[in-house]
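Please review this one:
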Amino acid sequence: MTETQRYLKATAHLGAGAQRSSPNLAQQIADRLRERIQFGEIKPGERIREVPLAAEFDVSRGPVRDALKLLERERLLRLEGRAGAVVREFTAEELTSIFHIRADLSGLGMRMAAETEPRPAEALDALDAGVALLRSIADDPDGPVADYIQVRRRISEIINRIGRASYLAHILVDFEREIAAPWAGVFGKGRQHRSSDTWARIVRAVRDGDAEAADAEGRRIVLESLDEILRLRNEA
């Protein structure tokens, strides 16, 4: 078991809550494809075809088609009939709008956690451990992007749990799914180091009950990602 797996297992009860039980075949395939998009293995604009997926998962095309429909409803894909599906691409204007809305919600979630009394010591310690793990992954040249994203997500879940912001957490998950493909492309090692520093400031603000700092850093971490996405687009 890797360090990331140990952390995720140890903090599962502090995260997003109970997972969906017994997903059907289409949901299982959708989960796998969603992870590939979120972790940058499938890029924006890339085509996904039913026949190769059916062969990979050893199923008929029916469950694959249903899985693609699920991801279309999450706005991750655009279905194109017999041609399969294409991972959604965004204009710069769309990304700017989405990220600014998400930044406001992120700041609100961090503020709510900082203002909550009491803040459970176990959750705060889990946040500290998560930040340390983020830095370890960022320092490791071979540290997987998927590990960084999963730990970052768990830290966010714990903060929202501290702030008793369950409904807000669901909204943020929907936003993250929608922009998963462009977001995954910015998690190079340089961005990981900068991001882990910002997460450290967020966790410190939550621990100290500094709502203003938590709000500001919660917004900052989202808008820094937007800046990185737009910069990479301009350089392409």
